[in-house]
Amino acid sequence: MSKFSDLTRLPDARGHFGPYGGRFVSETLSFALDDLEKTYLRLRDDPDFQAEFDYDLAHYVGRPSPLYHAERWSQQLGGAQVWLKREDLNHTGAHKVNNTIGQALLAKMSGKPRVIAETGAGQHGVATATVAARLGLACEVYMGAEDVERQKLNVYRMRLLGAKVIPVESGTRTLKDAMNEALRDWVTNVDDTFYIIGTVAGPHPYPMLVRDFNAVVGREARRQSLEEFGRLPDALIACVGGGSNAMGLFYPFVEDDEVAMYGVEAGGDGVDTGRHAAPLASNAPRGVLHGNRTYLMSDEGGQVSDTHSISAGLDYPGVGPEHALWKDVGRVQYVAANDDAVLEAFRELTRVEGIMPALESAHALAHAKVLAPTMRPDQHIVVNLSGRGDKDIMTVAKIDGLEF
Amino acid sequence: MNRIDKRFAELKAEGRRALIPYITAGDPAPQYTVGYLHALVEAGADVLELGVPFSDPMADGPVIQKACERALRHHVRLTHLFEMVREFRQADGDTPVVLMGYLNPIERIGLEAFADQAAAAGIDGVLTVDMPPEEADEFGPILKARGLASIFLVAPTTSRERAATICAHGEGYLYYVALKGVTGAATLNADDVAEHLAPLRELTELPLCVGFGIRDGASAAEVGKVADGVIVGSALVSRIADNAERPEAIAAELKAVLGEMRQALDALPAR
Q1: CATH number assigned to the domain with residue range B3-266, chosen from the 4 options 3.40.50.300, 3.90.1150.10, 3.50.50.60, 3.20.20.70
Q2: Is this prediction's pTM over 0.90?
Q3: B163: closest CA among B205, B200, B197, B198?
């Protein structure tokens, strides 16, 4: 019996994870969230729905994704064996598609002809545009104007897929503002529109259903660990922005007390500089944004803070409410990796293993570099390689002083 | 008796509809807000809604988003709002003031500390846009203990069952959101509003006030035919935006917009 078994029974009926989560939205959206919750709870246990989801994951996404032993890198680090859960090999290049497949099926079952999404780095936008193309749904993606500039390649990918990308000029012009604008769209077009949220945040039931759709990552990793090295891993590491890839990997291990878990937030210039996106690691105050209560970076007046990260996908001042609870109960340790350590990990994995990680995922790798040397060679770490790095080549080139 | 209840009781006795203007505190700069509030009362406001600027106003359209941005450039926060209302109360002890905003700035102060300071400043009600009654278990009693009314929204999409819950929790007045959408979005349909208000009458004795989509005297009168009160925000705030460079001219602009609505409402037959 695990001391963390209670964590598997959350959220409660009103979407709370302990003091976090909930449904803090304006009244117009309440009925849509009620509807979505009912639809999801019905389909979650429906074998036909699950069969269709599993089929798509196998034949469209290409699951299961491999668990790859980074042997050379492990040797170099001189400690534990590092295994990479290769979500970068999924169709569209990141874990995000697991969730968009699931939510697009919900949209189809709900008879909504139009989907919207918010996106930071563009990975969730691409994953949404992809499934929308496949199902013939109209798709509009909100993206901070600054991110549109930073991630031109993904913007064009979305347009090729038939989606309309709407640059958001309000606020800080990044992911949080894109989410504000998507919520405004949804409240206006709620009758015919399904909002595909890309992370384990937002109002209930989103944190629950995004978790469930991504949990395939952890279920596979658990089985693959038993196959590859005959037992469960000693540690799991994943990056945390909103926290969907970490939630997907961690959740199926939550009752395995012997498995340590590390969530790695964006340390930016350093947690002590204030220029970061690490609400958990910096012990930010509790707050309410985008429909849920969580750790939230805000100033003394309660205004949401500007965040900073080298990776657009982690540039978010809040974090999924379930992670907030897991921090409080000590199930997961949340740490931060700074931009320079992230870049170093990005370059190192590329050179040593021939695998170019997304800058988001490189946060998890940066912590593996810290953790592995403190462990024995007969111990095992699974790192979620949540996405591939092609989209970040321009960002890194710019740092190297190159322009294409 | 709370100033809001008193005001609605007076209006009912006179057969008149409430006119409820909204402005964002500190827009375009904090030193003008109290003057604007007095101007709105002179033009016929019965209740004042004072917006708390927030960095992420998810339920608001561009007009009020920009008002928040203008106010936040001056770092306006709740403590300043309390000072504004305290100053307003020196000259006006009767007109109810309702704070309208989002939960995060309130939580950051702490619910109890917020309620203490709000009551001491002379605030009468609180409308937290992103806090439906299901999430108000803790906050509701804290407000009530200090005589502050919890005001809630009802939307066209609200089910009858939810409406009953909201009515059971609501105090002061019920704010019916006339449109699916954000503030300042479109023009409302009065027949549609009437259709939605009728079942609410069976659920509550609270005055039913309607906001979103009221732009001028004509739309105010349309809504006034079926509602107990009319709430107007973006139509006023856009006048502030247009004149942000000459803030001393804004009071007259606000009076003109609100005065037209007052006239239109008062021209309706007594309720």
Answers
A1: 3.20.20.70
A2: yes
A3: B200
